[in-house]
Amino acid sequence: MLNSYRFNHKKHCLYHASLMVCILLLGACSSNSDRRYKMSDDAAPTHTPDVTKVEDAHPRFEPYSRGGNSKSYTVRGKTYSVLDTGKGYQKTGVASWYGAKFHGHLTSNGETYDMYSMSAAHKTLPLPSYARITNLTNNKSVIVRVNDRGPFHDERLIDLSYAAAHRLDMLKTGTAKVKVEVIYIENPESAALAELKTTDLHYVQVVASSDKRRIDKLSGQLASQYQVKTRIQQTGDLYKLQLGPIGRQQIAAELHQTLRQNGFPQSYLVVE
After folding, report:
1. What confidence score (pLDDT) does residue 40 get?
2. Which end of the chain is more exposed for a tag (fewer CB within 10 A), N or C?
3. Of 127, 113, 89, 128, whose CA–CA distance to 161 is shortest?
4. Is 193 helix (H, G, I), strand (E, B) or coil?
5. Which residues have a Cβ under 8 Å from the Cβ of 5 and sit 6 or more positions away?
6. Fold (CATH) for 190-271
7. Domain assignments of the chain as residue spans, ordered by start
């Protein structure tokens, strides 16, 4: 009987010890998972650095990241559809900002949020995107890199970093009416391939004159100088001297700039 009591008492103690370990482990897990939210409300940094000299984001081509660009996602019971491209996006709405509560934590595309950088969060723009944000109250503007999702309030269009909000002079008000304009940078490889496939013919209109002899002479000189074919288009008594055809727009544009610098400032491009 005594042995049975000792066994049960020992088993009871072991049970309570195991239970305490589980509670401690769960507490640790809970602490880790809630660490991001140890601040109940967002705030500006305690020791405010000088962010007046923080440069705008520098737009460049970046492929859209795999993270944060699912076709759609749901937050607080509402589903949002992510745009395939930011090209041509332009919208006016309310901007808010986010700071210390999220500083150092991951953004929706897996980067680290830095409230001292020129960044932003948007509900539907593909990540990353670049956009010019203009405060319509004071006409101040910044260029930001959108790399996060939010703000999840129906009345708000975009969430700006602390630095961006500072530059737009909207920290005191908390929100501001802004214009958002995406700066779309096309994939250079895609642009080059598209240009190679184009069937457009490009000409550089050099000069027009009623003096046919002058146009003929200049035609021979320019053809020899630039190693490009020429053609003369007649409209009534006016003769137009053009260089071309040139298959690639970039080459035609470069030739056009060269001609403008070499004494033909009135020249312009013609596409057929």
Report:
1. 57
2. N
3. 113
4. helix
5. none
6. Alpha-Beta Plaits (3.30.70)
7. 72-185, 190-271
